[in-house]
TrEMBL record:
<keyword id="KW-0150">Chloroplast</keyword>
<keyword id="KW-0472">Membrane</keyword>
<keyword id="KW-0957">Chromoplast</keyword>
<keyword id="KW-0125">Carotenoid biosynthesis</keyword>
<keyword id="KW-0934">Plastid</keyword>
<dbReference type="InterPro" id="IPR050464">
    <property type="entry name" value="Zeta_carotene_desat/Oxidored"/>
</dbReference>
<feature type="domain" description="Amine oxidase">
    <location>
        <begin position="105"/>
        <end position="546"/>
    </location>
</feature>
<comment type="subunit">
    <text>Homotetramer.</text>
</comment>
<dbReference type="InterPro" id="IPR036188">
    <property type="entry name" value="FAD/NAD-bd_sf"/>
</dbReference>
<comment type="similarity">
    <text>Belongs to the carotenoid/retinoid oxidoreductase family.</text>
</comment>
<keyword id="KW-0560">Oxidoreductase</keyword>
<dbReference type="InterPro" id="IPR002937">
    <property type="entry name" value="Amino_oxidase"/>
</dbReference>
<dbReference type="Pfam" id="PF01593">
    <property type="entry name" value="Amino_oxidase"/>
</dbReference>
<comment type="pathway">
    <text>Carotenoid biosynthesis; lycopene biosynthesis.</text>
</comment>
<protein>
    <recommendedName>
        <fullName>Phytoene dehydrogenase</fullName>
        <ecNumber>1.3.5.5</ecNumber>
    </recommendedName>
</protein>
<dbReference type="InterPro" id="IPR014102">
    <property type="entry name" value="Phytoene_desaturase"/>
</dbReference>
Length: 568
């Protein structure tokens, strides 16, 4: 879940806007608000850029690591078994028409596995782009800019299975098994945690920690290890019981020095949920550590080889359509209309059309769901608990420079700055974005709550000041060294849900108490919290619930059809 995944829509709440539909319009189209700035480029530079684009296939010189052996891990096999259960399920006598709102990974996953089970999903996306929190856009130069910096971990078994099922494993670019942190006290220098392939888990992780003497002293390592013992011994039950404590509170309770939090867990907290350790639930950290330490390749990272809508989302859409499902863009839901008994009658779209089905799924961010909940549902405990789940703001920054930066790696980097979370030189890490002459840095600006309403130029100025510390020999805040050719800023005012203490009891199961109405999304109940893996798994759980409810839903559909015929 360390993926820097997000979108924004500023400092706006429903109370600030006179009409709900105005807010929805903002949230769905601005929820991924994006803007850009372009610096005039010389004609020679433009010719160079044009030549690069029209010279034929790119020659990629970066070397990726071979795909790790994930297929025999317990979690991968468990995920594969769940996937197979849809393909082997008895074919329904009459497929269910399932209407799904939201074509992010949760909605796409739900539709994919329902189609695998023989049903007919109709996936509705409000905007003109697939992906939700992994959406991306192409600018006038043909360059892509994304909602977030997305990392695919070895510890994402359902995502890894999905790539295999679609036949696109080769679209993941695996990097060396390391975690690389910038050193604020030594501008321009980095500290590495290298996981040796010859050792099994958890020994490879322990070795990586023990070998790094730049960030933690030996006494700090020992105190941290002793503090972690209860989590190792207590297992999942202990991990879940820590939901009520923030990372900072838990560390102090375990007598772990504050410097451990400062050196390691500020960066980790911001990478996992875009917030600082004084806010993040310790359960989130322990779940991540558990996955990384228990699986040999759990913390190994891969980048997608290009933009997510085309390289990941479209293969899912093609699969859905090949099995008789349907995906529609520009289909924004205005209202959930109800029958007299409180069940869903149809989805009313903003263009006035109504969409009916045998079952309905909301796979949007939790903030949009709360805005569209019918009044008669709001006091039902299942829905009322959602009030505590609120999307966290995040900003994704892309900067194209006039030169190739040298002080970087073909990897994800933890900035350890006050304003930035993780970053990468995408001209190195991603084949589609590869450029031998110029760097494009993609950076996650977090925590972003105080910045979401600031201007793009303010955000770029602040980013450049931080980059000056990371690239002291190459970047100056005043651009007296590397110069900005252009930039894009993508704001997501409400991204993944904010994983603060005591949120876990508020996360809903995928099957709601309203017959025929289901939820999917990383905020729903599943063990991978706010992540791409969590979104995909939530879609599988949602599909599983619908398949299990087939007889009930089919009977209800026949009854409604009969009543409609009689009334006609």
């Amino acid at each position: 879940s360390l993926e820097a995944v997000m979108v924004v829509f500023g400092n706006v709440s429903a109370a600030n806007l006179p009409y709900q539909n105005v807010f929805l319009e903002a949230l769905s189209s601005e929820l991924m608000g994006h803007s850009s700035f372009r610096v005039p480029i010389s004609s020679q530079a433009l010719k160079t850029r044009t030549r690069r684009r029209t010279a034929g296939p790119l020659q990629v010189v970066c070397v990726d690591i071979p795909r790790p052996e994930l297929e025999n891990t317990v979690n991968f096999l468990e995920a594969a078994s769940l996937s197979a259960s849809f393909r082997s399920a008895p074919r329904p006598a009459k497929p269910l028409k399932v209407v799904i709102a939201g074509a992010g990974l949760a909605g796409l996953s739900t539709a994919k596995y329902l189609a695998d089970a023989g049903h007919q999903p109709l996936l509705l996306e409000a905007r003109d782009v697939l992906g939700g929190k992994i959406a991306a856009w192409k600018d006038e130069d043909g360059d892509w800019y994304e909602t977030g910096l997305h990392i695919f971990f070895g510890a994402y078994p359902n995502v890894q299975n999905l790539f295999g099922e679609l036949g696109i494993n080769d679209r993941l670019q695996w990097k060396e098994h390391s975690m690389i942190f910038a050193m604020p006290s030594k501008p321009g220098e980095f500290s590495r945690f290298d996981f040796p392939d010859v050792l099994p888990a958890p020994l490879n992780g322990i070795w990586a920690i023990l070998r790094n003497n730049e960030m933690l002293t030996w006494p700090e390592k020992i105190k941290f290890a002793i503090g972690l013992l209860p989590a190792m011994v207590g297992g999942q039950a202990y991990v879940e019981a820590q939901d009520g404590l923030s990372v900072e509170e838990w560390m102090r309770k375990q007598a772990i020095p504050d410097r451990v939090t400062d050196e390691v867990f500020i960066a980790m907290s911001k990478a996992l949920n875009f917030i600082n350790p004084n806010e993040l639930s310790m359960q989130c950290i322990l779940i991540a550590l558990n996955r990384f330490l228990q699986e040999k390749h759990g913390s190994k990272m891969a980048f997608l080889d290009g933009n997510p809508p085309e390289r990941l989302c479209m293969p899912i859409v093609e699969h859905i359509r090949s099995l008789g499902g349907e995906v529609r863009l520009n289909s924004r839901i205005r209202k959930i209309e109800l029958e007299d008994d409180g069940t869903v009658k149809n989805f009313l779209l903003t263009d006035g059309t109504t969409i009916q089905g045998d079952a309905y799924v909301f796979a949007t961010p939790v903030d949009i769901l709360k805005l569209l909940l019918p009044d008669s549902w709001k006091e039902i405990p299942y829905f009322k608990k959602l009030e505590k789940l609120v999307g966290v703001p995040v900003i994704n920054v892309h900067i194209w420079f006039d030169r190739k930066l040298k002080n970087t790696y073909d990897h994800l980097l933890f900035s350890r700055s006050n304003l930035l979370s993780v970053y990468a030189d995408m001209s190195l890490t991603c084949k589609e974005y590869y450029d031998p002459n110029r760097s494009m840095l993609e950076l996650v600006f977090a925590p972003a709550e105080e910045w979401i309403s600031r201007t793009d130029s303010d955000i770029i100025d602040a980013t450049m000041k931080e980059l000056e510390k990371l690239f002291p020999d190459e970047i100056a805040a005043d651009q007296s060294k590397a110069k900005i050719l252009k930039y894009h800023v993508v704001k997501t005012p409400r991204s993944v849900y904010k994983t603060i203490p005591d949120c876990e009891p508020c996360r809903p199961l995928q099957r709601s108490p309203i017959q025929g109405f289901y939820l999917a999304g990383d905020y729903t109940k599943q063990k991978y919290l706010a992540s791409m893996e969590g979104a995909v798994l939530s879609g599988k759980f949602c599909s599983q619930s619908i398949v299990q409810d087939y007889e009930l839903l089919a009977a209800s559909g026949r009854r409604n059809l009969s009543e409609t015929t009689v009334s006609t």
